[in-house]
Structure formats: C-alpha cells, structure tokens
From TrEMBL:
GO terms for molecular function: oxidoreductase activity. This is Alcohol dehydrogenase. InterPro entries: ADH-like_C, ADH-like_N, ER, GroES-like_sf, NAD(P)-bd_dom_sf, Zinc_ADH-like. It comes from Robertmurraya siralis. Residues 15-335 form the Enoyl reductase (ER) domain.
Length: 339
C-alpha cells in the first residue's frame, strides 16, 4: 500500500521532519483486529507537533495520522459485530483503560508511535471502529473523531454544559474549538467566541454562536463581558494571557476547561481571582470509549456536521500541514486517500 512514513526524530526547535511517500507492507488483521481501507483522513495539530519533535513518545519509522474513515476490508479472529464492507469511523483513543477520569499508563493516540491514517489501509482493534454516521460525507466523517471526542469530553463530561448557560470559546476556527461550539450550541447553550478574523466570527455565528468579538481590539474583554454577561463555562485551547482573560470573564462558581496552550504558559496568575470566584479549572484531553459513543450519538441525534475547511489529496499532505500552520482555515483539513 501507499503511505506517508515519518523516519526521522528531530530535536525541538531544529525544524520539521520530512514525510516520505512510499510503498509499505499492507497490514494484516490479528486476533481482535480489523483492517480498514481508508477513504479519508484528517489533520490535527498533533501531526505537526510530532514532525517538529514537540510530542512525547515519538518512535520511527511510523505512519502519522489520527483521524480516518473507510470500509472494513479484513476481519481477524475473535471479531464480532463487524462485517467486511461496513462503513466505519475510527476512534483514535487507544487503550484508555477502565478509569473514566484519566487514561492508563499505556494509553496512546493513533498515529505515531502506532501506525496511523496517512495510508491506504490501517489495522485497528475492533473496539475502535464504529458505524459511520449516515448523514456525513466521507470528508466529514474523517473530520470528526479526535476533535469531536476532545470537544465532547471538554464540553459535556468536564464542562457539564446545560441549556441556557453561557459558554465562551476563544480562538474559534480550529477543529476542536469549532466542534465544541457545535456541541454546546446543540445542547442549548449560548456560545460566544473570539477570533482575530471577523470572517471566522461570522462563520461561527452561522454554526450557532450567539455572538463574538475580535480579540485584536484593545477592549475585547470588556466588549465580550458586556454582550455575554460572563461565562458559566469557558473551553480553552490557547492558554497564556487568554486564560487570565477567561478568569476575568468567569461568573461566580463557573468552570474553565483547558485542552491546549498555543500561547504557552500563564505568567503572574492572580490567585485571588480564582478562589474568590469559587472557580473550577480543569484539564482534559481526548476521551474514553463511552465518550466517543456519546459524541457519535449526539452528532447523529442532532444531525451535526463537522466543518471541512479544505480537502487535499494524500500526496499533498505536506502542503496541507503548511496550511494548518498558517492558521487561516476554519474547521478541519481533510485528506483524500487514493483508492
């Protein structure tokens, strides 16, 4: 089969490792496994970080890619409930374990060190494949798994979002943030967003956001406080100074859920703002099997569709990565796998 292979580990800050497009051995299904012929895959920021040496547990050679959808092509022994020809999406959360609060020590995310979805075929445990939602295209299906799972755990499991609550999501446009907006809006929350792009704010409002503010304006925090009334829940992938702004915007007894830190560490955090407001600040990432099922059920029930920003052929994956790093996209960047 054809696949992109990461062969080099590099030190952080020294550049970006090349991906090699080459012929590799097609995987065979073992006990409890299936092989899926992939139709589509999708990019995540994790893929870029791995190439830059910014992610733990990198092993080479291995095939990147966490998100994918396709057709079951082979079934191993001891597999039930799945048949050849089934259309499936893949849960990239591998080996979470039994504790819903945090993953086991051997937990991994599909795609480095476990061979991922930048390939024509993938071998995966049968418990990690689920029926593709019928209302989704192949491109939309591939855009859903990692971002949808992360957003669901942040908004529903951790954030416990409720109808009528106010949710603030800074930096709208990325895959997880956009999916979190769709989830919170579908559950009846009033969602407010921020972006450096008025166009992205307008797109977010078409997806269900109640309003938004351009954070390039000096008084954006004040503006957002006025129009939103403050947050019952903030879902943050940015960190840095933005986390302090979210603490300022937080209502008494509210929650902040963090799953990223694109702006880096938080400096000079004023602790009284946290304890006098009785805030709960939680970290989260990925999710377990039951949360993946809950996320799929929510998307099926509300007929939600992930936003696909652009579609590239697999052969142009490095160009797609450059687009992701440029940051102009809204939603997910998807790869079409050659058949």
């Amino acid at each position: 089969m054809k696949a992109f292979v990461l062969k080099d580990k590099i030190k952080p800050g020294t550049g970006t490792a090349k991906l090699y497009y080459e012929e590799v051995e097609t995987p065979k299904a073992g006990a409890g496994e299936v092989v899926v012929r992939l139709k589509t895959a999708a990019l995540n920021r994790r893929d870029v970080f791995i190439r830059q040496g910014l992610y733990p547990g990198i092993r080479v050679p291995s095939i990147p890619g966490s998100d994918g959808a396709g057709v079951v092509a082979e079934i191993g022994t001891d597999v039930t409930g799945v048949e050849i020809g089934d259309e499936v999406v893949i849960n990239p959360s591998i080996g979470w374990g039994e504790n819903p609060d945090y993953p086991d020590a051997n937990f991994s995310v599909l795609g480095v060190p476990i061979n991922g979805t930048y390939a024509q075929y993938i071998k995966i445990p049968v418990e990690n494949v689920f029926p593709k939602p019928k209302h989704l295209t192949w491109e939309e299906a591939a855009a859903l798994p990692l971002g949808g799972l992360t957003a669901y755990r942040a908004a529903v499991t951790k954030g416990k979002v409720k109808a009528g609550e106010t949710v603030i999501i800074p930096g709208i446009g990325g895959g997880v943030a956009t999916l979190a907006l769709q989830i919170a809006s579908a559950l009846g929350a009033h969602v407010y967003v921020t972006s450096s792009s008025d166009e992205k704010i307008n797109k977010a409002m078409k997806l269900g956001a109640t309003g938004g503010v351009n954070y390039r304006q000096d008084d954006w925090v004040k503006q957002l406080s006025i129009i939103s009334g403050g947050a019952d829940l903030a879902i943050d992938s940015i960190g840095g100074e933005t986390l302090k702004d979210l603490i300022h915007l937080a209502k008494l007894g509210s929650k902040i859920v963090s799953f990223g830190a694109t702006l880096g560490p938080v400096n000079h955090l004023l602790m009284p703002r946290i304890f006098f407001k009785q805030l709960t600040i939680m970290g989260t990432t990925m999710g377990n099997r039951n949360e993946f099922i809950g996320m799929l059920n929510l998307f099926n029930e509300h007929k939600l569709k992930p936003v696909v920003s652009e579609v590239y052929p697999l052969e142009k994956v490095e160009e797609a990565h450059e687009q992701m790093e440029a940051g102009g996209h809204f939603g997910k960047i998807v790869l079409e796998i050659p058949q």
